Amino acid sequence: MKPGQTQRRPWIVGVSGASGTPYAASVLRALLAAGESVDLVVSRASRLTLLDETGLPFRDAHWQDDLREWLARGADGKPGTFDVRIEDVRHWSAGDLAAGPSSGSYPSKGMLIVPASTACVAGVALGLSKDLLQRAASVTLKEGRKLVVVVRETPLNGQTLRHLVSLDDAGATVLPASPAFYAGATHIQDLVDFVAGRVLDAAGVEHGLYRRWEGELGGGSRAT
Q1: Could you give the C-alpha distances from 153 to 44, 108, 125, 134, 156, in angstroms and in order?
Q2: What confidence tens digit (pLDDT) does each residue in 79-137 have?
Q3: Is the peptide bond before 79 cis (omega within 30 degrees of 0)?
Q4: Which long-range contacts (CB under 8 A, 24 or more apart) does 25-29 make?
Q5: Secondary structure of 152-176 in the HEC alphabet?
Q6: What H or E segment, with its residue span, contains residue 30?
Q7: pLDDT of residue 220
Q8: Which pLDDT does position 214 carry in this prediction?
Q9: What are the per-10-residue average pLDDT scores of the chain (224 residues)?
């Protein structure tokens, strides 16, 4: 690092194979809009989910083009909905266990796993480190950094619930992808953005993704 240069400290965003890729897109857009740097890890399973939910590929060799197209889409699948700049994104292949986020000495603000599948939850809770996503999460926990796990599954069985309790005990924030309706949602994007906003709340990142509760009954029904 050159004298006078500020050290880059990104948020690591892991995308696992659970349904819910619009949640990840909304979180990524909001982080970038807030001026945050992002290190992105997209698991192999999540690439299949992304293809299924959006029709879009995510390829290591073409990740910039693929990411731009993905983030430009709304939750309804309409292309060109958002204009996003990705200069502050660094992509790491999920199979690269020598990547920066695999080490505790690599500087980061923390990690957001969105969405988190039950397999991902189990891998992180048990410390398996089967891929870079799991390894980065384990590093985040051992370094005492913020880890937000956005679990997306229903119903939850006892085994997964025990894994989630283990993550909570280890210091992670367990944040189910559960949209609320008091914010006056009128579009699927509003519901997605509510969850993404709660993720950024947990991370301590400012945003304007949803209408906050102000103690006024009926406010959501009058929201525009």
Answers
A1: 18, 28, 16, 18, 7
A2: 999 999 999 999 999 999 999 999 999 999 999 999 999 999 999 999 999 999 999 99
A3: no
A4: 25/70, 25/71, 25/73, 25/75, 26/75, 26/189, 26/192, 26/193, 26/195, 26/196, 26/209, 27/112, 27/114, 27/196, 27/199, 27/200, 28/71, 28/84, 28/89, 29/71, 29/82, 29/84
A5: CCCCCCHHHHHHHHHHHHCCCEECC
A6: helix 21-33
A7: 66
A8: 82
A9: 78 98 98 98 98 98 98 97 97 98 98 98 98 98 98 98 98 97 94 98 97 82 58
Give dist(CA 154, CA 147) in Å, integer. Answer: 22
Please report the DSSP string for 53-100 in residue order.
HHS----GGGHHHHHHHHHHS-TT--TTS-----TTEEEEETT-TTSG
Six token digits for residue 64:
């910039």
Beta bridge partners of 173: 148
Supply the pLDDT for residue 143: 98
Q: What confidence score (pLDDT) does residue 218 get? A: 74
* Pick from 73, 88, 104: nearest CA to 192: 73
How many angstroms separate the CA atoms of 189 and 166, rounded? 32
Rounded Cα distance between 180 and 81, Å, is 23
SS3 218: coil
